[in-house]
Amino acid sequence: MTPPVEEVRKRSASDYVFGKVLGEGSFSTVYLAKDVHTNKEYAIKVLKKVHIIREKKTEYVMREKEVLMLLGSSCQYFVRLYWTFQDAERLYFVLTYAKNGELLKQIDKHQCFNIECTRYYAAELVLALEYLHSKGIVHRDLKPENVLFDENWHILITDFGSAKIVKENTEKCDNETESDTTFHKRRNSFVGTAQFVSPEMLTDTSSSYASDLWALGCIIYQIVSGLMPFRGPSEYLIFQKILNLDYVYPEGFDKTAKDLVEKLLVIVPNKRLGATDVKPYTSIREHELFIGLNWDNLGPPPRISDVSDNISDIIIPDNLEPGLDEATASRLQLDLLPLAPTPSRKKSQPSRKITDLSPEEIEQRLEAQKSNPYHVFVSSNLILKQGLIDKKKGLFARRRMFLLTLGPHLYYVDPVTMVLKGEIPWSGGIRAEAKNFKIFFVHTPNRKYYLEDPEGYALEWCKVIEEVKAYYFPEQSEAK
Ligand code: ATP
C-alpha cells in the first residue's frame, strides 16, 4: 500500500494550529486546523486511543485509514488523507477541509434540489462510484451525511469506516474477503445506516458494488424530494419496507429522475442499472437524466439555491499556539457551545436540588403528572426530568423518551410506538459522565449506556442523575 506522499516527512500536532471543532463523531472530534508551515487549512480528525480500544473500534479506524490511503489523491470527489500521526493519547488524520459541510444540511435547508442540481450531483456521485469501485472498494454507508462539499461546491465523499476492500483481481465482490472479518463475526448485524441499507445486506449480509448503487438510488430520491424513500418509526419497519420495496414517490417527483431511481432501487443486486456493465457505469451515464451532459468535464456546479449561501468563513485566530494539549482541546470543545441554540437554553434552578421536594409538593406534582402521556410508564413515581435522548448501540441510535423518577428509576420509552423499552438499572454504582454538551454516558456496574441529547442538555442530565444518586445512595456519591 502506498502511504500518502507527505507521510515520509514526520508530522505531529505541533505542525498545526487547531482552531475550531467542526463536528463530532461517535469516536472522534474533527477540528479545523491550519498548517503552520503553509497556512493551508485542513480538517483534522482526532481519535482518543483509550476510547477506540474501549469501544473496540480499532478495526473501524484501521479500515478508514486503509481505504483513504488506497483512494489517494487521483479523484477529486473524495476527502483526501494527507498525513496520519499519533501521540501517546491520540490518533490524528489530516484530511481535506470540506468547507461547505454536508449534503444533508443542504437538503434540509432547501427541502429539495431542482433537476439541474440533481443531474449534476447525481453525475458527480456516479463518477465517484466509478472511481471507488475501480479501486475495489465498496463504501457500504453512502448517505447524505457522508457526502460533503468542498469550497467550490463539488462533492467530497467521506466516512470509510464501514467500507469493504475487495480482494485484488476479484471482479465482483459477492464473496467476502479477509478484510471482512468483523463483518463475518456480526452475521446477524449489518453495517451502514438503516434507511440506506440495501436489501441484500439485510437478508444475507452480503454486499457488493451494487449495494452502493442502491444507496445512490436512495440519495437521488432524497435530493429530488427532500425525503428518504424508506421511512418508518422503527428500524424494524424500515427494514420491512426495504425488503418489500415499499416506497412511493411524492407528487411532482421528476419523471426522468424517477425512472433512474426505479432502476437503481431493485431488490436483486445484479438487476440494478449499471451492476453488470462491462465498463462501469456506462448504462447509468446513458440514462435519460444525463442527456447532454459532458462526462469528461461536468463544468462548474449549478447553484443549489438562488439565495446566496452564507457559509461562514471560520477564521483561525493568529495568536494561537500550535498543538493540541488537553487545555486547548477543552477550550475548543467549549467553543462548540455557540453552535447550540443558546437563546432558548433553559437553565436548571441553581439553588434547589431536584430532589428537594416536600411530601405535599410530591403529591401536587403527581396529581398534575396524570395528564402527562408518559405517566402510565412510571408506576406512579414522580418524574423529575424527562427528555428525548438518542440511545446508541453499535452504529445505531434509537430515540427514546427518558424519564428520571423518584424511586429511583430511569425508564426509557419508544415515543413513536409508546412502548416502554426498558430501564437503566439503578444502584449506588451508577455514574453519569458528560463527554460534551450533547453526548453523555451512564455507567452501571455491568454496562455503559451511550446517550446523546440532541438539544444539548447532556450536562444537566448528568447533574440530575448525580443529584438523585446523592439522595438515594449518599455513601457512594461524590456530589453530597
Ligand atoms: P460516526 O463516527 O458517528 O459515524 P461521523 O462519521 O460523522 O460519525 P466524523 O467523521 O468524525 O464522524 O465527523 C464528525 C463531523 O465532523 C461530521 O459530521 C462533519 O460534520 C464534520 N467533518 C468530518 N470530516 C470533515 C471534513 N473533512 N471537513 C469538514 N467537516 C468534517
TrEMBL record:
Q: Please report the stretch or stretches of sequence annotated as the Protein kinase domain.
A: 16-290
Q: Would you tell me the protein name for this molecule?
A: 3-phosphoinositide-dependent protein kinase 1
Q: Record's Pfam families?
A: PH_3, Pkinase
Q: Name one GO biological process term.
A: cellular response to oxygen-containing compound
Family that this chain belongs to? Belongs to the protein kinase superfamily. AGC Ser/Thr protein kinase family. PDPK1 subfamily.
Catalyzed reactions per annotation: L-seryl-[protein] + ATP = O-phospho-L-seryl-[protein] + ADP + H(+); L-threonyl-[protein] + ATP = O-phospho-L-threonyl-[protein] + ADP + H(+)
The answer to whether the entry has keyword Cell division is no
**Subcellular location per the Swiss-Prot or TrEMBL entry:** Cytoplasm
The record's GO molecular-function terms, alphabetically, read:
ATP binding; protein serine/threonine kinase activity
Q: Which domain of life is it from?
A: Eukaryota
> SMART domains this protein is in?
S_TKc
